[in-house]
Specification:
By secondary structure, the chain is of the alpha/beta class. It is built from 17 helices and 13 strands. The strands form 2 sheets. The protein has an 8-stranded parallel sheet, with helices on both faces. Strands 2-3-1-4-10 form a 5-stranded mixed sheet. Bound molecules: (1Z)-2-hydroxy-3-oxohex-1-EN-1-yl dihydrogen phosphate. The site of (1Z)-2-hydroxy-3-oxohex-1-EN-1-yl dihydrogen phosphate has 16 residues, from β11 and α14.
Length: 403
């Protein structure tokens, strides 16, 4: 028999954790066991969940808790993430202090998921950048702009030599810059910039609107020149990401935005761990790039959680392409050495304010990042590199140097 397992952290000052674990294993599978007549027990046995492990802990900071692993028979659920999530953490997510730490998919279950269509390797091929860290710029101040305003902003970012530009996630379908026109105008601007910089550029257009229209919006955007898509899977549902990413006609990389993630992962006692939510689940649902708050910027996440997300995105023991980690929020050039030390080269350095807020403008913001990346790769301290790189010097003066 084949099982998916779920590991939970359950906080409770007095509970009998074994009893609790067994009630979950039975309650979320066959409902009731001891009351079933013998004959029915035999029929139901293949559907019964079971407790794999219970590790009890008591510590001064977190009190009394147990890490509990339960196996759920694959036969109980269809091959989609909602079915597994509802089984493993539907009703019980509301039953006391319980956090879903991890899910381990059976080989059989995972075989239903193609995963990222491009992944790290595919994106590197599209950009002709086989090894180095990538640089992404985020459109800022997009609401209320017309197409020309947006195009000017796009061009300024693109000329700074970035590899990717993404829409801000709060740029929805709107009459001033509808997705098709935006994709077409920015495509022209990208080609103009590519002629100057000699670098390929991907533009991730924000895919929004009613769920029933997402596919047609995506196809329209791609037809008009979008070379990537930005999508917020936690607002729409991971299964929608899975549908989009496995659609053969949606043949561009998808970047997953972490909007709403703060409602799930930060609590020690409740929710879903960051590494599962923003790592394993995003990758399984097919995100080629995954954004999440870094440990160092304006919205922070503990470093060990960040590295655990990274690990889920890049681990090579799964039959899925890897996804690019994109630690984000408040990133500026002074943070680049730390970012590369923690994430290595398979990372997208991503900045909005850290590019647009450069005193020399957005293009200078892009140069400053490229200079910081180059210096970090060569092991040159940024302060030293700044002597010969005025854009980097201006960035360090503005935001400060390495922490
Ligand atoms: C964690 C998501 C970060 C994001 O979407 C965003 O727009 C960041 O902007 P900056 O770099 O903080 O200005």
């Amino acid at each position: 028999m084949s099982f998916c397992t779920a590991t939970y952290r359950i906080h409770d000052a007095k509970a009998d954790f074994r009893k609790k674990a067994e009630s979950i294993a039975v309650g979320m599978t066959v409902g009731s066991w001891t009351e079933l007549p013998q004959i029915q027990q035999e029929n139901m046995r293949k559907h019964l969940g079971h407790v794999v492990r219970i590790e009890e802990h008591e510590d001064a900071l977190y009190g009394r808790y147990a890490d509990v692993t339960i196996a759920y028979p694959d036969i109980n659920f269809s091959r989609d993430l909602p079915a597994l999530l509802i089984t493993a953490f539907g009703k019980i997510s509301m039953d006391g202090q319980i956090k879903l730490l991890d899910l381990d998919f059976s080989k059989e279950f995972l075989s239903g998921f193609p995963g990222p269509k491009f992944g790290i390797e595919g994106i590197r091929q599209l950009l002709g950048a086989p090894e180095r860290p990538l640089l992404m710029s985020i459109f800022k101040s997009v609401v209320g702009y017309d197409l020309d305003g947006l195009k000017q902003q796009f061009l300024a970012q693109a000329l700074g030599g970035v590899d990717l530009i993404k829409d801000d996630e709060i740029l929805f379908e709107n009459p001033l810059t509808p997705i098709q026109l935006r994709a077409a105008e920015c495509r022209k601007a990208a080609e103009e910039a590519e002629r100057t910089t000699g670098k390929k550029l991907l533009y991730a257009v924000n895919l929004t609107g009613p769920t029933s229209q997402l596919r047609s919006q995506a196809l329209k955007a791609i037809d008009s020149g979008a070379t990537a898509l930005l999508f917020s899977p936690l607002a729409y549902g991971l299964d929608i990401l899975q549908e989009l990413s496995s659609d053969p006609d949606i043949n561009v990389p998808i970047a997953a935005h972490p909007s709403l993630a703060g409602a799930f992962y930060p609590s020690v006692n409740y929710g879903i761990s960051a590494s599962l939510l923003l790592g394993k689940l995003m990758r399984t649902a097919g995100a080629d790039l995954v954004l999440f708050p870094s440990p160092y910027g304006s919205v922070v996440m503990p470093r060990e959680e960040n590295l655990a997300i990274r690990q889920e995105l890049v681990r090579t023991d799964l039959p899925l392409r890897t996804s690019f980690p994109v630690p984000s929020a408040g990133i500026h050039p002074g943070l680049v050495p730390q970012l590369l030390a923690d994430f290595g080269s398979d990372v997208v350095v991503n900045a909005g304010g850290g590019i647009h807020g450069h005193p020399g403008g957005a293009s200078a913001g892009g140069y400053a990042f490229l200079q910081a990346i180059e210096a970090s790769l060569q092991g040159i301290p940024l302060e030293e590199a700044a002597h010969t790189n005025p854009e980097l010097q201006a960035a360090l003066n503005t935001w400060g140097g390495p922490k």
